[in-house]
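Regression test case RT-17, inverse folding.

Input:
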């Protein structure tokens, strides 16, 4: 086997790692303080309940009313007080779509930042393809035997009621933040851009509990999502997490995965997380200024050695190489500065020249087949993409090779989005759902 990327390991190891990660989102209620409870595993994200004197505060509301109703029912064993306030840490759909399930006759205040709604940027024009890539990234159409998980969430969630329980914010948190009392609970809202520009985190000063939203979860962060996103401000993300660490929380409640309890453990996790993000950013910037290309940097940048074994920084969800490429494009755009890549050959012409270099289409096809036999799956994929452009190429064979290579890579991936994308794309190719352009 020839490894491609730092999240490729032996198939048994990859599966064992992903199965172990499942413990991070086993369904249940975690009591994080005398009056604070977090529901984990009821959907992809977490929802939390803070119990006050005459009511409760709900922080994030899951994906839709079905999953939210189940979490709300589980919360009732700890309190049946009415919901006085709902807080959205940011505007991703898995945190805001189930609000109605928590609301009774009394309509609560709903808190969000002034930038709320900007989570996906302004790229609505490409929503059609983003939806297809979203399905692949999260493996939404994979069969049960193919499914593992989504890195920071279970594989199988109830998604058909997406956003049906959403209620719009009624209280805007200013850029300076907000300190107030709700249902007798002292609560602080702090602006913290990171995974989204509209993010904030919540601090409970008496309980010493910090609710981080999606700026922290137990995995290397998804600084770039392969479903397609606008540039996520990596430097701001690192700074926001460093700001969280200054509070020295006794409990850290992530947007996904299990809470981290204990001041030392919670504070160390935040410091390490901030350092990891900043290190990837700084290494990438140094490489950029040294004239290195994104392809080169994606293979060179690594987490600092003392952070590589931290369980909350394993690349189950985010990926260092993807982050590097996103930082490069976010800071400089697509062009890597090398005039060779300024106006590259069109794919069909390049494929023809690659075939000539190999000694003809037949020789190139033999090389493709040989790469697959050697389990050099990435090279087999790349050669298949050349063969499929050739007028005299065996497109049916190229498609078959690509399907097999994708499944070979998937079996070795412990990065869940990569694994899900490889398998989903292979299935689409096999079913004939992809056009010749996509193939």
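Golden output:
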């Amino acid at each position: 086997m020839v490894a491609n990327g730092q999240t490729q390991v032996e198939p048994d190891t990859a599966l064992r790692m992903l199965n172990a990660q499942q413990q991070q989102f086993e369904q249940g209620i975690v009591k994080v303080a005398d009056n604070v409870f977090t529901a984990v595993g009821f959907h992809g994200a977490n929802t939390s309940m803070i119990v006050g004197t005459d009511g409760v505060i709900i922080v994030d509301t899951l994906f839709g009313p079905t999953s939210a109703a189940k979490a709300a029912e589980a919360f009732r064993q700890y309190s049946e007080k009415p919901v006085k306030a709902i807080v959205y840490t940011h505007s991703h759909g898995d945190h805001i779509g189930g609000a109605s399930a928590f609301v009774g006759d009394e309509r609560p205040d709903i808190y969000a930042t002034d930038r709320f709604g900007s989570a996906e940027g302004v790229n609505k024009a490409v929503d059609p393809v983003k939806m297809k890539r979203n399905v692949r990234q999260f493996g939404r159409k994979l069969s049960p035997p193919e499914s593992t998980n989504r890195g920071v969430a279970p594989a199988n969630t109830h998604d058909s009621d997406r956003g049906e329980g959403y209620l719009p914010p009624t209280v805007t948190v200013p850029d300076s933040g907000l300190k107030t009392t709700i249902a007798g609970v002292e609560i602080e809202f702090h602006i913290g851009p990171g995974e989204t520009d509209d993010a904030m985190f919540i601090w409970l000063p008496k309980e010493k509990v910090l609710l981080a939203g999606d700026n922290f979860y137990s995995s290397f962060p998804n600084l770039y999502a392969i479903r397609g996103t606008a540039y996520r401000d990596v430097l701001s993300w690192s700074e926001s997490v460093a700001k969280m660490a200054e509070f020295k929380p006794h409990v850290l409640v992530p947007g996904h995965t299990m809470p981290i309890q204990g001041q030392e453990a919670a504070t160390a996790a935040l410091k390490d997380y901030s350092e990891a993000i900043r290190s990837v950013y700084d290494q990438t910037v140094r490489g950029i200024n040294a004239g290195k290309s994104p392809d080169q940097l994606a293979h060179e940048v690594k987490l600092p050695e003392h952070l590589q074994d931290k369980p909350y920084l394993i690349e189950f969800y985010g990926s260092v190489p993807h982050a590097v490429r996103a930082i490069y494009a976010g800071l400089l755009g697509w062009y890597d500065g090398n005039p060779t890549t300024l106006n590259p050959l069109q794919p069909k012409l390049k494929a023809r020249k690659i075939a000539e270099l190999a000694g003809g289409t037949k020789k190139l096809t033999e090389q493709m087949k040989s790469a697959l036999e050697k389990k050099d799956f990435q090279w087999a994929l790349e050669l298949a993409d050349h063969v499929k452009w050739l007028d005299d190429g065996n497109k049916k064979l190229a498609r078959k090779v690509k399907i097999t290579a994708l499944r070979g890579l998937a079996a070795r991936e412990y990065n869940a989005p990569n694994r899900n994308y490889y398998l989903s794309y292979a299935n689409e190719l096999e079913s004939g759902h992809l056009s010749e352009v996509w193939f």
